[in-house]
Amino acid sequence: MIKGCSLTELAKTHDYFVLDADGVIWEGNNEIGDSAKGLQYLLENKKSIFILTNNSYKSRKEFMKKGKSVLGMDIPENCWYTSSRITAVFIKEKFPEIKSVYVVGGPGIVEELGLVGITDVKGIEDSSKQYDESIFWSEEMKDKKVDCVIAGLDPGFNYYKLIFATNCIRRGAKFIATNSDSGIKMGTFLMPGAGSLVAAIEKCAETKPFLIGKPETISLEMIMRENKIPEGEKNKFVMIGDRLETDIQFAKNAGISSCLVLTGVTTKEMLGGDLKPDYVMDKLGTF
After folding, report:
1. How is 67-94 classified by DSSP, letter by letter?
2. % of the chain exceeding 70 in pLDDT
3. How far is CA 111 from the centre of its chain?
4. What pLDDT shows up at residue 223?
5. How far apart are CA 210 and CA 89, in angstroms?
6. Pairing of β 189-192 and β 257-261
7. Quick one: pLDDT at residue 143?
8. Using 50, 70 and 90 to split pLDDT, how confident is the model at 133?
9. Is there a contact between 161 and 104 (Cβ–Cβ < 8 Å)?
10. Which pLDDT value is given to residue 183?
11. DSSP letter (8 states) at residue 15
12. pTM for the structure as a whole
């Protein structure tokens, strides 16, 4: 049975709060409800907060700036876990042989790759390129060596990038997706998410990607390792998010508590299926 709750009640039994950003803390460049008050309450009560976002377009530094401008808060860099950074660290640790990357995504991925020493990165500049059949006979297509294709949120996605990424993968490049989010709520509209672009590349390349973001649990492993949180403390974690298929599924996969807020994609009417959160709150700033 799903329990209604407040942030005050959650804080009685949990010490580590993993929070989604879009649909929980803010929508676009607007704060949702009293989310800043909610975050301040947690910090004042000595709770650890980790903002875990599947949005790979920005780097941690850019999200810190957004936190200051939207919430009026200086949230330290080590509290931000973006899928761009998690992807970069994952590649460095699991595939140290990767030196050259083609990015279907934003500058956040490029910046985070650079911070782990991967600087041979292409793709951002291709947003302005137009499709032409001559691409298939170009020296660029024949000779460019790419070890890995990373796909994430990319407002500059085009047919050229789809062709190039697909053929890099078909020639043996690893295919890594920052996340599989189908869309992002923007007011009454839905913006295509990284998952929509990943699906196009996957279909064309006939290759499934390594998935990094929620609902995969790579991020929680990183959070616990970097913050020296012992395995025995996992029962003190709670994930607060607005999506069943990513945030709540992530919590189930990781074996931690889950709390759904009703300020994003999921509504009460959508809670009739098998996948359910442990708790529901109207908004993060519910006391």
Report:
1. IIIII-----GGGEEEHHHHHHHHHHHH
2. 99
3. 15
4. 98
5. 14
6. unpaired
7. 59
8. confident
9. yes
10. 80
11. S
12. 0.92
DSSP string, 220-245: HHHHHHHTT--GGGGGGEEEEES-II
Query: In angstroms, how far is CA 68 from the centroid of its own chain?
Result: 20
Amino acid, single-letter form, for residue 229? I
The position carrying tokens 């998010």 is 241
- Asked if 30 and 254 touch (Cβ cutoff 8 Å), the reply is no
User: What type of residue is 213?
Assistant: G
The closest alpha carbon to 124, from 94, 96, 90, 161, belongs to 161
- Can you read off the two tokens belonging to residue 212? 């990094």
d(CA 243, CA 261): 9
pLDDT of residue 281: 96
Residue with tokens 């530094």: 61
d(CA 283, CA 36): 11
Q: Give me the amino acid identity at 85.
A: R
Catalytic residue annotation? 15
Structure tokens that stand for 81 in this block: 């876990």
Q: Judging by DSSP bridges, how do beta strands 237-241 and 257-261 pair with one another?
A: parallel
Contact (CB, 8 A) for 273 and 251: no
The pLDDT of residue 189 is: 85
Q: Please report, for residues 89, 176, 284, the alpha-carbon distance to residue 52 in angstroms, rounded to integers and kept in the order given.
A: 15, 18, 15
For residues 264 and 165, give the distance between their C-alpha atoms in angstroms, rounded to a whole number. Answer: 32
